[in-house]
UniProtKB/TrEMBL annotation, chain A:
This is ABC transporter ATP-binding protein. Residues 280-344 form the Mop domain. InterPro entries: AAA+_ATPase, ABC_SmlMolc_Importer, ABC_transporter-like_ATP-bd, ABC_transporter-like_CS, ABC_transpr_FbpC, Mo/tungstate-bd_C_term_dom, Mop_domain, P-loop_NTPase. Residues 1-230 form the ABC transporter domain. GO terms for molecular function: ATP binding. The keyword Thylakoid does not apply. The lineage of its organism: Bacteria, Bacillati, Actinomycetota, Actinomycetes, Micromonosporales. The keyword Cell membrane applies. It comes from Paractinoplanes bogorensis. It comes from the Bacteria. Keywords: ATP-binding, Cell membrane, Ion transport, Iron, Iron transport, Membrane, Molybdenum, Nucleotide-binding, Transport.
Length: 345, 199
């Protein structure tokens, strides 16, 4: 059940223009900052929003002229939208009942789905008696019980606390793997995207800026947003052999020559070394810098540096004390050529 | 009952659909709230009277005449009391999250099914409150009824009309009738007050 969608939606001052494909059984994550158009894309796929242009095809059938109730697309909404006046069981049975499945059969089926998500003991409860994680699982069971051809999830884990999130994410992963149709998942959390999805589609400002599997995205980000998500320093420049010239004239040396002329260069903050004075010896990429800010990042400290090349560096707390790193301090930064990766822009 | 059948769909239309002239329709629906009931009665007479705009056509095609009949009483009271229901239900509908209807649609529910199985239960307290208000207003209705339907004992005489008549002939009977009316009203309002406040 493969999806091919080309979606254009215009709003005041905002245009969403997205191409999207998904294969049967594939989980595609739409990742992007708030207001990028992820949820709008999902609503357009579900039929809750009219397209201004484009088309949506699922298994060769045009979906965009159909109203949402005829599309057979399961949606798990961000705040789940469980019907507050119905029990968990009747919530899950709602979809089949709308398709004229007899009441007893629909309930039996709903019971089966609730068993499957591990909520066999909570069938009689009303949504307000369920915890966040339980409500999320009921919402998933409700979407799956109507046997959708495609599954859409809008920030499925955003409303959960950190601990529940961990468990629910693992369970969700299992359920998505068992679902035969295509799944499109919206999230702003890179961890959710990396853990749950086979393929990532990065949306910024209403456009797709990068697609690829987790390995590609984390190794070769193409925008500042993605670079920040995966924790890399990213620059855009022109390459000539092993020398990359950035727009402001700064040059970085890479270990291997690039064949393309327009390139991205990326390196992790941990590859940046800081010295109190100009270092001697091998590192060729060396420049004076000023400490802008210091923050905690896991077990090390993240230093934001200003100067000729704005860069983030990770140092150990001991090194930070030794160097006396505080905002305004002048240091020398260097990064080894072997750590700098250049790839075609 | 007439108010429920007419009023709930009307409120849904006013709350959920965008259409040109919605403000005008809403104004028209609520105008009996501010209109003196007697004026409402006169308006009804002009429209549904034997020589009225609609009345004349009704009379000629179906031989039906509304003024001064029991049906006339119902029409008059519905006219005056319905705004209370429409306003209460429209408010409840606006308060209810329209996204539940969207969730229902993605599960395969048509608009009508979504309204019946999701929205209606969600706004039930609002409808109950509106119906009580509406009924209370209709019970006390005087002006429009006497103008449009007259005051014929057993046919178009309502309790307030009976009280008014009795006051001129037999004050004791008027007091008894008033007391009955008072007790019934207070009883029902007290029983339903919780729902009313909750909505």
């Amino acid at each position: 059940m493969s999806l091919a969608a080309s979606i254009t939606v215009r709003r005041d001052g905002f245009t969403l223009d997205v191409e999207l494909t998904a294969e049967p059984g594939e989980v595609v994550a739409l990742l992007g900052p708030n207001g990028a158009g992820k949820t709008t894309t999902l609503r357009a796929l579900a039929g809750l929003l009219q397209l201004d242009a484009g088309e949506i095809t699922l298994d060769g059938v045009r979906l965009d002229p159909l109203p949402p109730e005829q599309r057979r697309i399961g949606v798990v909404f961000q705040d789940y939208l469980l019907f507050p006046h119905l029990s968990a069981l009747d919530n899950v049975a709602f979809g089949p009942r709308c398709r004229r499945v007899p009441r007893a059969e629909a309930r039996q089926n709903a019971q089966k789905w609730l068993d499957r998500v591990g909520l066999a003991d909570h069938v009689r409860k009303k949504p307000r008696q369920l915890s966040g994680g339980q409500a999320q699982r009921v919402a998933l069971a409700r979407a799956l019980a109507s046997e959708p051809r495609m599954l859409l999830l809008d920030e499925p884990l955003a409303a959960l606390d950190a601990r529940t999130r961990l468990d629910t994410r693992a369970q969700l992963r299992g359920h998505l793997a068992a679902f035969p149709g295509a799944t499109v998942l919206v999230t702003h959390d890179p961890l959710d995207a990396l853990m749950l999805a086979d393929r990532l589609v990065i949306i910024e400002d209403g456009r797709v800026v990068q697609t690829g599997d987790a390995a590609t995205i984390t190794a070769e980000p193409r925008t500042d947003y993605v670079a920040r998500l995966v924790g890399l320093n990213l620059y855009h420049g022109r390459a000539d052999g092993t020398t990359v010239t950035l727009p402001d004239g700064f040059t970085l040396i890479t270990a291997s020559a690039s064949s393309a002329s327009a390139v991205f260069v990326a390196f992790p903050p941990s590859a940046v070394s800081l010295y109190p004075s100009r270092p001697d010896g091998s590192p060729r990429n060396t420049w004076p810098a000023t400490v802008m800010s210091v923050s905690r990042q896991g077990g090390s400290l993240r230093i934001e540096l200003g100067g000729a090349l704005p860069v983030a560096a990770d140092v150990t707390p001991a090194a930070a004390v030794h160097l006396g790193l505080e905002p305004g301090r002048e240091v020398w930064a260097s990064v080894k050529a072997t750590e700098v990766r250049a790839y075609q822009a | 009952m007439v108010c429920l059948v007419l009023g709930v769909p009307l409120a849904w239309v006013l709350a959920r659909l965008e259409f040109p002239g919605r403000r005008f329709v809403r104004a028209l629906v609520t105008v009996p709230l501010v209109l003196p009931p007697v004026v409402g009665g006169v308006a009804l007479l002009l429209v549904f009277g034997r020589r009225g705009l609609v009345g004349e056509w009704l009379d000629q095609t179906f031989g039906v005449s509304l003024p001064f009949t029991t049906t006339g009483v119902v029409v008059a009271e519905a006219f005056v009391a319905m705004p209370f229901l429409v306003i209460a239900v429209e408010g409840a509908l606006r308060g209810a999250d329209a996204r539940y209807e969207e969730a229902a649609a993605t599960l395969g529910a048509t608009r009508w099914t979504a309204f019946r199985r999701v929205t209606l239960p969600l706004i039930a307290p609002g409808i109950a409150a509106g119906a009580v208000l509406c009924w209370a207003r209709a019970l006390g209705e005087f002006g429009a009824t006497i103008t449009f339907a007259g005051n014929f004992p057993g046919r178009t005489q309502t309790m307030p009309l009976a009280v008014y008549l009795a006051l001129e002939q037999d004050v004791d009977a008027a007091i008894v009738l008033s007391l009955i009316l008072l007790v019934v009203s207070v009883g029902i309002l007290a029983a339903l007050r919780d729902k009313w406040v909750a909505a």
